[in-house]
Specification:
The chain has 271 residues and is α/β, with parallel strands linked by helices. Helix content is 41%, strand content 23%. It contains 11 helices and 13 strands. Strands 5-1-6-13-7 form a 5-stranded mixed beta sheet. A 5-stranded mixed beta sheet has the order 10-9-11-8-12, sandwiched between helices. The protein has a 3-stranded antiparallel beta sheet with strand order 2-3-4. The protein is globular and about 55 Å long. It starts with a helix and ends in a 7-residue tail after the last helix.
Length: 271
C-alpha cells in the first residue's frame, strides 16, 4: 500500500512538472482587468508632471502648482468624481514612472509621437504645438541654416529631441546638442551665452519670451507641428475612456475654452 502511495505521489509530481513546463497561456481579458492598476475606479488619480514647465504646469510664488494642464486636470477630476493629485517626476523617465505604477497619468504638455504610442495610451489631441527656435535678441542667427556650428539646447526626454533628430541635415550641422533637465535652466544658459539657441515647445517658449521682452527672439522657422495628449498605461482603457469623455464635455460646454483664455489670452484648444 505504501509503495502504491509513493508511486502515485511521484506520478502527480511528474504531471505537475509537465504542466509547469508547458506553453504559458495568454492572460484572459478578465485576468488582465483584475491585474491592471485600479486607477479608473480609484478615488484618486496621480498625475505625473514636470513642475517647471510653464504655463502648462509650474510652481507660483507661493510654491503652489498652477498652470493650464493643472486646471484642465482638476476640472476633469471634478467631472469624474475623483481626487486629482500631482507628482513631480524626472520627465526623461516619465514612461518608467507610468508603467512602474508610480503615477497613473501623464498630463503636462505631452506630445503624441509614434514612438510614445508603443508604450502609452493617449487621448485624442487637445492642443496643437510647434517646436520653435529661441535665440538671444542680438544673436546673428536668423534661420535654421545659421545653426551650423552652434550649441543648441533641448530638454532631455522632450519631443524637441525627436524633432531635432528628424531634421538630419540640421542636426549634423550643429556643434553640439546639449540636453537639460528643464527649459528654465536652458534659457539661463542661453542668456549667459553658453547656448546659441534653444529648441522648445512653443507654448513654453512664448510664455518665457513674453515675460522678458527684448531679451529673446523666436525664429520664423521651426521644427514642425505636433499635438498634445493625455497619456496613460496601455492597459488602462477604462480610465482613458473616462478621461476622454471628460475632455470632450469640457470642450463642448466651453470650460476648456475658459481655462485656455485664462492662460493664453484666447481659446487655442484643439476641437
Amino acid at each position: 500500500m505504501k509503495k502504491r502511495i509513493v508511486l502515485l505521489t511521484a506520478g502527480l509530481m511528474v504531471a505537475g512538472l509537465f504542466v509547469g513546463c508547458g506553453k504559458k497561456e495568454e492572460p484572459t481579458a478578465a485576468a488582465a482587468a483584475a491585474s491592471a492598476p485600479a486607477a479608473a475606479t480609484a478615488k484618486a488619480i496621480v498625475i505625473g508632471l514636470d513642475d517647471n514647465f510653464p504655463p502648462m504646469g509650474f510652481r507660483n510664488d507661493k510654491n503652489e502648482l498652477v498652470g493650464f494642464d493643472i486646471d484642465l486636470a482638476r476640472e476633469a477630476g471634478k467631472r469624474l468624481g475623483v481626487e486629482v493629485t500631482f507628482k513631480p517626476i524626472d520627465w526623461s523617465a516619465k514612461e518608467a514612472e507610468l508603467n512602474g505604477n508610480r503615477i497613473d497619468v501623464l498630463w503636462n504638455g505631452l506630445t503624441i509621437t509614434e514612438e510614445r504610442k508603443a508604450n502609452i495610451l493617449f487621448t485624442t489631441p487637445y492642443l496643437e504645438n510647434r517646436q520653435i527656435i529661441v535665440v538671444a535678441d542680438k544673436s546673428p542667427i536668423k534661420t535654421k541654416a545659421n545653426l551650423a556650428g552652434a550649441v543648441v539646447g533641448v530638454q532631455d526626454g522632450s519631443s524637441a529631441v525627436e524633432a531635432m533628430q528628424k531634421d538630419a541635415a540640421t542636426l549634423k550641422s550643429i556643434k553640439e546638442l546639449k540636453k537639460f533637465g528643464d527649459n528654465v535652466t536652458a534659457l539661463m544658459d542661453l542668456t549667459a551665452g553658453r547656448l546659441n539657441a534653444l529648441v522648445v515647445d512653443e507654448v513654453v517658449g512664448r510664455y518665457y519670451t513674453a515675460k522678458k521682452p527684448g531679451e529673446y527672439r523666436v525664429l520664423d522657422e521651426n521644427f514642425g507641428t505636433e499635438d498634445y495628449g493625455v497619456g496613460m498605461r496601455k492597459s488602462d482603457t477604462e480610465l482613458a475612456g473616462k478621461l476622454q469623455k471628460a475632455l470632450d464635455s469640457m470642450k463642448a460646454d466651453g470650460a476648456a475654452a475658459t481655462i485656455s483664455t485664462k492662460w493664453f489670452g484666447k481659446d487655442i484648444v484643439k476641437k
